[in-house]
Structures are given as C-alpha cells and as structure tokens.
Amino acid sequence: MLNYRRIYVQGGIYFFTVVLENRKSDLLCRYINECRQAYAETSSFYPFKTIAICILPNHFHLIIQLIEIDKDYSKILNSIKYNFSKRLPERIIK
C-alpha cells in the first residue's frame, strides 16, 4: 500500500494533476461544458481561489488557493470528480 505524505495548510496554495482512469480517453474535452459546470458547482459549494487551470483531453492541471480557514483540499478534488462523473451519459460510465 502506498503511503502518501499530505500537507494540509490553512489558506495554502496547491498544485494538482488529476488524470482520468482511461489515459486514452478524451472525455474532458468532449464534455468540456460538463467539466466547467462541475467545477463551478464545486467552487460555489467549497470556496477557493483558482490561480490556474489547464484542461487537456485526459487530465487537468490545477493550482488553487484555499480560503484562510480551510485546509482540506481533498473534498474539493473529490467534489470536482464526482460532479463531472454524474454529468456524463450513463453509457460512458459503464
């Protein structure tokens, strides 16, 4: 089992790369509007500052800054992934 080191800092700035399970997929570009909606929904529910985002066909890079009283970036990433997945057509998820 992997043992990741994670640092949680209130108001911290974090860089992430989030990759689709299927590296040959182009879902993020093919469903870019759903991706934007998922991101907007997450940012309205969990406030954070977007410093930069780059969306590619099968992954995205993200730099965010949390609000001063927040240090849990995991909930933000999980929410983005969940909100995007629920917007995809059911035939794609199977």
Keywords:
94 residues, alpha+beta, Alpha-Beta Plaits, 3-stranded antiparallel sheet
Describe this structure as you would to a colleague.
This protein has a three-stranded antiparallel beta sheet, with no helix packed on it. Strand 2 (48-55) and strand 3 (59-66) form a beta hairpin. The protein has one domain (13-88): 2-Layer Sandwich (Alpha-Beta Plaits). The chain contains four helices and three strands. The model has no long low-confidence stretch (mean pLDDT 91). It has 94 residues and is of the alpha+beta class.
CATH superfamily descriptor: Transposase IS200-like
CATH class: Alpha Beta
SS strand fraction: 15-25%
Classification by helices and strands: alpha+beta
What global shape is seen? globular
Mean pLDDT: 91
Helicity level: 25-40%
What is the succession of H and E elements? Answer: EHHEEHH
Distance between the termini: 27 Å
Radius of gyration: 14 Å
CATH architecture: 2-Layer Sandwich
In what order do the strands lie side by side in the largest sheet?
Answer: 1-3-2
* Biggest beta-sheet profile: 3 strands, antiparallel
Count of distinct structural domains: 1
pLDDT under 50 segments (min length 5)?
Answer: none
Question: Number of helical segments?
Answer: 4
Enter the CATH topology name.
Answer: Alpha-Beta Plaits
Tell me the total number of β-strands. Answer: 3
